[in-house]
Amino acid sequence: MAKKAGAKATKKAEAHKEAEHEPEKFTVPFAWEAAKEEPLALTRSFLRDAFTDNETYMGRGDKFFAAFADQQSPRATVITCADSRVHSQAWDLTPENDDFTVRDIGNQIQNVEGSVEYGVEHLHTPLLLVIGHTGCGAVKAAMGDTSKLSEPIRKELEHLQVPPADATKAPDDAWAEAVVANVNNQVAFSLKRFNHAVHEGTLTVVGAVYDFRNDLGQGAGKLVIVNVNGNADPERMLSFVEAVNGRLGPHEAKDLKVAKDTKEKPGKAEHAQAPATTKDVAAELAKIRGISAHANDTEPVAVREAAEVARASSLHEH
Fold first, then answer.
1. For labelling alongside 48, which of 9, 83, 113, 299 has CA 20 to 30 A away?
2. What is the 3-class SS of the chain, one letter each residue?
3. pTM (two decimals)
4. What's the confidence (pLDDT) of residue 280?
5. Which residues contact 116 (CB under 8 A, 6 or more apart)?
6. What's the pLDDT at 39?
7. Do 159 and 124 touch, CB atoms closer than 8 A?
8. What's the N-to-C CA distance of the chain in angstroms?
9. Which residues, in sequence order, are bridge partners of residue 129?
């Protein structure tokens, strides 16, 4: 027995010794893989593009960066979804020192309240812009059963309350409705949290949907305003955008020109028959407006007056 035990121990020691001489093998980072879709290949390609793009960005020069190197002074606190298809260049081609952007899945205020508070109350941005997007995976998940999701993701979705999937509606329509509902709810929460600033007139809370799927029918990539300080009426949203732009849209201007050519008074023509496009847009928004945030059911005087001034100015120009 002793001899057998000794022989077994000797063989084990020899095997261990041979193993020590065999080098351990690891995957070689950033070597070309069998397929470009493999994890390391994708990592390398992303970093290579990042380094190249960064060099290009640095080409803007010292003067560009010096303008905001020591202090930030953004005009807007922007809360968006973390979705990889949603980025600031869709609504702001120059976001540097202009957008204080906070991102999480489902563009939820409550999950990142501290960051939003910093933008609103410490950086004093006059605008809190909540941007949802069509095709939002977080919203779709919240519409169904989240019990099979991991605990961290379930916890992240706790404050995302949207209408459940409705079998009587087309799936994409129900999804778009839920996206708008979520934006309205986030605006409502913001109004409760920052109501003092809104009442003082130092903050405006705007809800929008970035529609890269064209689910809202206004063109792929459109930033559609769906809520302003708790108001979600489609026609008011159109008036708000018109007031911000300080002019009538191209379709309204065209209708006024037709009225002028037929010697009709522009004001009469405008009120007698609203442009078909404006009606269609309002109708589409009405279909997908979802759960409205009723924190403020009275149209802000400033918005109404601004719209009237803009309309009068445009009528005068035409």
1. 83
2. CHHHHHHHHHHHHHHHHHHHHCCCCCCCCCCCCCCCCCHHHHHHHHHHHHHHHHHHHHCCCHHHHHCCCCCCCCCEEEEEECCCCCCHHHCCCCCCCCEEEEEECCCCCHHHHHHHHHHHHHCCCCEEEEEEECCCHHHHHHHCCCCCCCHHHHHHCCCCCCCCCCCCCCHHHHHHHHHHHHHHHHHHHHHHHCHHHHHHCCCEEEEEEEECCCCCCCCCCEEEEEEECCECCHHHHHHHHHHHHCCCCHHHHHHHHHHHHCCCCHHHHHHHCCCHHHHHHHHHHHHCCCCCCCCCCCCCHHHHHHHHHHHHHHHHHC
3. 0.71
4. 56
5. 77, 79, 102, 109, 128, 190
6. 85
7. no
8. 110
9. 78, 206
CA-based nearest residue to 241, from 179, 303, 176, 317:
303
Q: Which parts of the chain register pLDDT below 70? A: 1-21, 27-34, 247-318
What residues contact residue 112 under an 8 Å CB cut-off, 6+ apart?
79, 102, 103, 104
Q: Which amino acid is residue 64, in one-letter code?
A: F
pLDDT at position 25, please?
72
Q: Residues 6 or more apart from 61 whose CB is under 8 A from it? A: none
Q: Which two tokens stand for residue 181?
A: 């509902």
Q: Is 199 exposed, middle or buried (0-12, 13-18, 19+ CB in 10 A)?
A: exposed
pLDDT of residue 224: 97
Chain centroid, CA 207 distance in Å: 10
